[in-house]
Amino acid sequence: MALLIDQIGELVTNDPAWARSGLSADGEKLGIVSDAALIIEGDRVAWVGPSSAAPDADERLDAAGAAVIPGFVESHSHLVFAGERAEEFAARMAGRPYAAGGIRTTIAKTRAASDLELTNNVTRLLGEYRRQGTTTVECKSGYGQDASTELRSVRIAHQHTDSATLLAAHVPPPEYAGRADDYVRMVLDEMIPACAPHASWIDVFCERGAFDGDQTKAVLAAGREAGLGVRVHANQLTAGPGIQIGVELDAASVDHCCHLADADIDALASSNTVATLLPAADFSTRNAYPDARRLIDAGITVALGADCNPGTSYTTSLPFVIALAVQALRMTPAEALWAATAGGAAALRRNDIGRLTPGSRADLVILDAPSHLHLAYRPGVPLVRSVWRAGVPT
Ligand code: NIG
Ligand code: FE
After folding, report:
1. pLDDT tens for residues 255-279?
2. b vs e for 243-276, b when ≥16 Cβ sit within 10 Å of the residue's Cβ?
3. Which protein residue has the closest C-alpha to ligand 1 atom 11?
4. How far apart are CA 372 and CA 101, in angstroms?
């Protein structure tokens, strides 16, 4: 069964071939086709081009001039948790700074929660993501910080989301207070062997109050040894070695990147590692925003994510993140949309999503707007008309 969506006012393909074709009026990076059509066959995009040249199909949907974009790809989320931290947020807004230790509040609640409670939390947040146009979600563990709760967490993430990450070292839990090295040993000896079969990635929070450079390296290297891809929470609150360790270990992504040294830029610029920026976390913590312009101007691939978690960023809205990136990170609307779609895909080392081109998965959003510019131009407005994942309306 082939479905033709035609009369698309503006189709964002993220396909460089369209950018080069001259049919793209705007947003070279986005490979925009104006007055476009797209054919879905099964779970894939079968054809893309001008509406006037569209072949016949079994069914037809008239987009009536709306913009169509690839579904957002969220490459950084923490959905396996119990409870919330609104009081901590209120205290922060009253002037108290954010510190890594707040994570322990969620660890206590998560350890005490049943699998059903944790699963319900994940599916509730996935529903929020989906209604706002996100069609792929990576999900981290990290609120267990003992072998059994991390195992429960990665299993749930693996079962319900697209990509599960073992955030083995988020913060040393209370029973290891002042003994981070002993905790790392337990991670290497027990947690990674138990959890690796249920995860795709290993992650560490490399930060003051969390894990230092040597500890980060040890955990990431052990995860890699166990067959996991590497990602790192790096340089979020302070400058540190996280970005360079990530690049050394061929991380798919280093995330946050709010504090950048020249050596960090140089390392990223000559690597395959994506810099994933999470400005909603900086917004909610009132911390420094990353210098996106410096990264982009150095030719580094930038992704945007929402970083949904109960501490620093309790949002699932990629449209909000795009609007924020345009204002606070001075990204162009085209750069921000690319980063939240193709950039997220690159951060997950996927080339079948984050784009609308023949053969890619049919993950798309029809906007209640004539152009992608409205995502940043009309912040806070629900512009997602419908969402398709793998060729199926959701
Ligand atoms: O990505 N930075 C570390 N992890 C989360 C915050 C976790 C929390 O505060 O619960 C983040 O911002
Ligand atoms: Fe995070």
Report:
1. 999 999 999 999 999 999 999 999 9
2. bbbbbbbebbbbbbbbbbeeebbebbeebebbbb
3. 312
4. 39
Question: Are 296 and 335 spatial neighbours (Cβ–Cβ below 8 Å)?
Answer: yes
CA dist 257 and 260 (Å) reads: 6
Q: Is residue 47 packed enough to be buried (19+ CB in 10 Å), middle (13-18) or exposed (0-12)? A: middle
Residue among 5, 57, 42 at smallest CA distance from 385: 5
Give dist(CA 335, CA 357) in Å, integer.
19
Whether the CB of 307 sits within 6 Å of ligand 1: yes
Task: Report which ligand 1 atom has the smallest distance to the Cα of 85.
Answer: 10
Question: To which residue do tokens 């360079």 refer?
Answer: 244
Residue 229 identity (one-letter amino acid): G
Pick the ligand that lies closest to the CA of residue 74: 2
Q: Which atom of ligand 1 is closest in space to residue 102's alpha carbon? A: 9
Is any ligand 1 atom within 6 A of the Cβ of residue 315? Answer: no
Distance CA 223, CA 204 (A): 10
103 pocket-lining for ligand 1 (C-beta < 6 Å)? yes
- Please state the pTM of the whole predicted model: 0.97
pLDDT in tens, 343-382: 999 999 999 999 999 999 999 999 999 999 999 999 999 9
Could you give the angle at the alpha carbon of 210 between the alpha carbons of 112 and 286, nearest 5°?
Answer: 95
237 CB near ligand 1 (under 6 Å):
no
Quick one: 60 exposed, middle or buried, by C-beta within 10 A (0-12, 13-18, 19+)? middle
**How many angstroms separate the alpha carbon of residue 127 from the centre of ligand 2?**
19
Taking the centre of ligand 2 as the mean of its atom positions, its distance from the CA of residue 309, in whole angstroms, is 7
